[in-house]
Amino acid sequence: MADEKPLVVEDKPEARKRGIWGSKAGFVLAAAGSAIGLGNIWRFPTEAANNGGAAFLVIYVACVVFIGLPVMLAELTMGRHTRRNPVGAFKKALPKSYWWLVGALGVTVGFAILSYYSVVAGWTLGYVVKSATHTFTPDADPGQVFDGFVGSWWQTLICLAVFMGLCIAVVIGGVQAGIERWSKILMPTLLVMLVLLIIRSVTLPGSSVGLSFYLEPDFSKLNMKVLVAALGQAFFSMSLGMGAMITYGSYLSKRDNLVTSATWVGMADMSIAFLAGLMVLPALAMAGITPGLEEGGAGLIFAVLPTIFSELPWQPMGGIVFGTAFFLMLMLAALTSAISLLEVVTAWLVDERKWPRKKAVAVVGGVTFLLAVPSALGCGAVGWLSHVCTLQDQQLGFLDLMDKIFGKLALTFGSLLICLVVGWFWGMGKARDEVLSGNPRFNKLARAWSFLLRYLCPVAIAIILVFLIIDPSAIR
Ligand code: PHE
């Protein structure tokens, strides 16, 4: 059958030169590294606690499976097909149109998220030092420790600078030697640490209150706000809506199976978020913070989790060792996510502006640091930056505001645009052909994907966005 199209297309030499993941496992770990981060451990448990616990969990799973995964597949497909950063990808897929602006929005959003994300990641670094130096004794008040820490401008700025430096060091190494190599080591370590901490957390006195809230669904708590929160969290956690997955997809080999890769990444991300809830909610309950209380805020996890460490056996060493290891793990999870954000902006400068990689990484890192300063100082160190506006009686600091605008709203909007572009303008036919390379049996699934991406996802996301325009306070 001479005219049968080969299903596995070889990668072109230019693509190899630009950078390609060394193996499928390498890609899955790097993409899972991007997805799994502060979003899972810092943001997910708080979102679940504020939005009805188990009911949130059920809606979250539905959002990941029916909306997150199709969008992720769309991003990876576009990235591999065009072998470009988000701006270049839209330019190449839809030449002579203005759709590249969607990519430009993505790069901008990536920049903005990286700025405040690095601040929180910097806190994890500070907490590594605090835990190692036994700050969290049984009679220390972790809430006060946290306030003291974020209230000190030099401590937060030093931590931020060190974290940014680490990101720069990894991304300068490039795709295989930098990002892939580190993700392979860091991700498995994270899982082991998490499991050990869950065992302690669920055996804490009083943990059952937190556990039952998390695991027994009460569907009377469901409303539009829960849906808004779950969908926004799914996009953030899966690194969607701003082109991180377009960029990571652009380094994929034509031999790789995009569907199984996306599914692995999505499932790993969801599982870690679920496990993080198991670790955090019992600790919240034990600290006397009733789950469901309208009390979110960036610092919740930092102000509460150290209580677990002082309850560990073999004090004080047990607390010191586990506390240090935990925040180290959190920092590493944040690092593998932050490098994907940094890589998006870097890839844009390298592909489109032809900058050398080193220069691009250094400049982007430096500018991000400056952009991060208001977020860093806006958590207590500088008064007016810590209360920039009030939403539903809640005082928002600069960092919270950035998270709402860029981490929640912009990613939801960006995901809508990606569905529309791939589903309607670039065309499902081309997208399907791209997935077929490396996955000859995709035809069976292609119709379901097409339905989800063209109809279900855009309609569901648009409804959420309209609801948010009518009631902006829903974005908590
Ligand atoms: N997914 C990352 C996390 O959960 C955050 C992130 C968002 C990374 C968007 C890249 C792009 O922490």
Widest sheet: strand order? 1-2
Q: In CATH, what is the class?
A: Mainly Alpha
Beta percentage is under 5%
Count structural domains.
Answer: 1
Predict the CATH topology. Answer: Hydantoin permease
Number of helices: 20
User: Whole-number average pLDDT?
Assistant: 87
What sequence of helices (H) and strands (E) makes up the elements? Answer: HHHHHHHHHHHHHHHHHHEEHH
Structural class: mainly alpha
Write out the CATH superfamily name.
Answer: Hydantoin permease
Bound ions, cofactors and other small molecules, one mention each: phenylalanine
Which term fits the overall shape?
A: globular
Return Rg in Å.
22 Å
Q: How many β-strands, per DSSP?
A: 2
Catalogue the unreliable spans.
1-6
- Distance from N terminus to C terminus (CA atoms, Å) equals 59 Å
Main beta sheet:
2 strands, antiparallel
Sequence-ordered SSE layout with sheet pairings:
Elements lengths: L12 H6 L5 H12 L2 H13 L3 H29 L3 H8 L6 H33 L9 H9 L2 H20 L2 H28 L4 H9 L8 H14 L6 H6 L8 H29 L13 H5 L1 H5 L6 H36 L4 H21 L5 H4 L2 E3 L2 E3 L1 H39 L6 H28 L6
Antiparallel strand pairs: 1-2
Helix pairs in contact: 2-9, 2-13, 2-16, 3-11, 3-13, 4-5, 4-11, 4-13, 4-19, 4-20, 5-6, 6-8, 6-16, 6-17, 6-19, 8-9, 8-16, 8-17, 9-13, 9-16, 10-13, 11-19, 11-20, 16-17, 17-19, 19-20
Phenylalanine (PHE) binds next to α2, α3, α11 and α16.
